Amino acid sequence: MDPYPVPVILVHGWNSHPGIWNRLVPLLESASILSSRFDYAGMQDATLPQIALALEQHILSVMDASGYDGKIDIVCHSVGTCAARYLLEVLDGTTRRERVRQLIGIGPPNDGSALAELFHDPRHGPAIIRSLAGTFVPPGFDPSADRIVQDVRPESPFMKRLRSAGTRDDIRYRIIATANPGRLPDFFPWFEGKTWVRAEDGQYRLTFEGDGIVPNSESVLPGTVPEILPAGLSSSRFLPSPDQYCHISQPRNPVVIERVMQHLKGSKSKT
Fold first, then answer.
1. What is the reported pTM?
2. Domains of the chain by start residue, with CATH
3. Which residues contact 166 (CB under 8 A, 6 or more apart)?
């Protein structure tokens, strides 16, 4: 059994920042869990492989500074999960120098992002970008110039390398996702509570089985069943409010945070 508590590395998502963990970190401190926030918000023109390399250096510096040499946990939001997986599965997949007990991904586009593809669609793209400007995408957003967006397109070279590498059998993968079972528009008002998804026939449609940005089907990893929150179909389960379950709010959602803490405090090594 690994010693408890296990240190945690926190990785934010695209167009985000380390402040998203401000509600989780005090709980980690109360549980005597050492944590460090990896910040790549300033790497404006970086690709996800470059961010993965920066994450590798961050982990190394944290380990050196703390003197800790055991396994760590990594908690990621959104695209941050893709960067962490690239480090663990592609860059370190054979050597396995990175000793990780579990990787917890919150709302990750593990199979690539339908929305990233739709940004480039001449029919849907302009309207989607206009509706999300200042909320999820920056004002004046040009998807063709954003290297992270290019990397998470489902058929990008990055996503193909990630798929072909496969997951590691020495790491426990946990996926936490959210959905809108109550079909409430306030869940994600910009898409009337729905999420864009690419169907098996290649067509794009809207579904309530997603967090407004990432459909649940994109979060799936082989051998890992996503934990979908809130549990049950009743809209009364949306505590504190429906919009707190959308993609943007996930890292600050108390129910999501509670589930993360349960895993950090209760997980054992995968054998």
1. 0.94
2. 8-266 (3.40.50.1820)
3. 89, 93, 222
